[in-house]
Specification:
Elements lengths: L6 H11 L1 H4 L1 H10 L14 E5 L4 H12 L3 E6 L2 H15 L3 E5 L5 H14 L5 E4 L17 H23 L3 E6 L11 H4 L8 H22 L5 E6 L7 H6 L1 H7 L6 H13 L10 E3 L2 E2 L13 H16 L14
Parallel strand pairs: 1-2, 1-4, 2-3, 4-5, 5-6, 6-7
Antiparallel strand pairs: 7-8
This protein binds NADP nicotinamide-adenine-dinucleotide phosphate.
Length: 335
């Protein structure tokens, strides 16, 4: 169905306003003005999907949406009880068989071990939703020596995409969806400051830098996977009422309160990117509410050499994940 008259103008005004765009006002207006296709009619029957961080919030909801669309979903959590509970609830709600696996995705060894297990049990992967993440206010280093925000949001996602790329290629056309954040608009891509030093660590800035890095890596993956039929996009959910948001930003969460999106509204674009025919040829883009959006809003985050910086980031990720990509593990050498 054609969009309502003036829909593009209203969308542009909302987008410019930030708050109008990121809250449920943006979701409600866009879904009506553009007559969105219901997710239930965007089918994924016979497709295999992974959703990370599916024990809570957006990931939990996205996994259920994909299962309702007909996908065979494997959820990944880090806590056995929470993961089994989510698996059982999604299976009961959708009537689908749902798989579950465990990995602390701040650890590259556990990320690689999960990819190994999955590759032994499956010969294809149609949809990879890289959603697990958190805004962590205290500087934390993992047992493997990586700052935890970079490890979870950047290195682990890179490793999982790398290790599972043969399965994604086997299922092509297939789709990788990274859940980034509108917070990335505040930071520029800078490999030298991606890993903060402990004394000047600011959790919100560290998180935003990693989300900016995800957007840059989606572009890099797009170049590296050109002609394979695998697309890689980032999206942001707006501001959604989830346990993660309530814990990380309690004051913000209280103030925006009733205007926050529901997890279903926040996760809608994940499920749309996974299944919509019109999304299948798009790659390297940053989506909100079923449309590609600008990657910069502020002049200070733009850099003329962003492409070169993204290539540096790619080399950093390749190097740091290399020890976890042994010959026996599935995965392409992306260098
Ligand atoms: N809510 C928003 O408004 C908003 C806005 C922008 C972006 N996002 C992004 O959306 C994604 C989901 O966030 P959410 O708001 O839904 O938060 P959430 O309710 O806290 O859910 C986060 C999920 O990620 C998992 N996770 C976190 N660290 C992990 C690790 N090291 N290993 C394995 N799993 C891990 C959590 O597992 P546990 O249950 O074990 O903790 C949980 O399942 C995140 O990437 C976040 O940055 C959210």
């Amino acid at each position: 169905m054609r969009p309502a008259p003036g829909a593009k103008l209203v969308d542009a005004v909302l987008e410019a306003s930030v708050a109008g765009s990121f809250t449920r006002i943006g979701y409600k207006a866009r879904s009506r003005l553009f007559h969105w296709t219901p997710l239930g009619s965007l089918r994924l029957d016979g497709k295999v999907a992974i959703v990370t961080g599916a024990t809570s919030g957006l990931g939990r909801t996205a996994a259920e949406l994909l299962a309702r669309q007909g996908a065979e979903v494997c959820i990944v959590g880090r806590d056995p009880d929470r993961t089994e509970r989510a698996r059982a609830e999604i299976a009961a709600a959708t009537g689908s068989a749902v798989e579950a696996d465990l990995a602390d995705l701040s650890l590259l060894s556990e990320t690689a071990a999960f990819a190994d297990r999955f590759a032994k049990q499956h010969d294809r992967l149609d949809v990879l939703v890289l959603n697990a993440g958190a805004l962590i206010h205290d500087y934390t280093v993992t047992a493997e020596g990586n700052e935890i925000t970079v490890a979870t949001h950047v290195l682990s996602q890179f490793l999982l995409t790398r290790a599972l790329s043969p399965l994604l290629e086997a299922a092509a056309p297939s789709r990788v969806i990274m859940v980034a954040s509108g917070g990335m608009y505040t930071e520029r891509l800078d490999v030298d400051t991606l890993e903060s030093d402990p004394d000047s660590y600011d959790g919100t800035a560290a998180y935003a830098r990693c989300k900016r890095a995800q957007v840059a890596l989606a572009e890099e993956w797009t170049r590296h996977l050109l002609d394979t039929g695998v697309t890689v996009n980032t999206m942001h959910p707006g501001w959604a009422d989830t346990p993660g948001l309530r814990t990380a930003l309690p004051g913000f969460s209280r103030i925006v309160g009733p205007l926050l999106r529901t997890p279903e509204e926040g996760a809608d674009t994940i499920a749309w990117l996974a299944a919509a025919p019109e999304a299948s040829a798009q790659s390297g883009l940053f989506f909100l509410d079923r449309r590609a959006r600008a990657k910069h809003r502020l002049r200070r985050t733009r850099r003329p050499d962003e492409g070169r910086e993204a290539a540096r980031l790619w080399r950093l990720c390749t190097k740091r994940t290399a020890p976890y990509c042994t010959e026996s593990r599935a995965g392409n050498d992306p260098s």
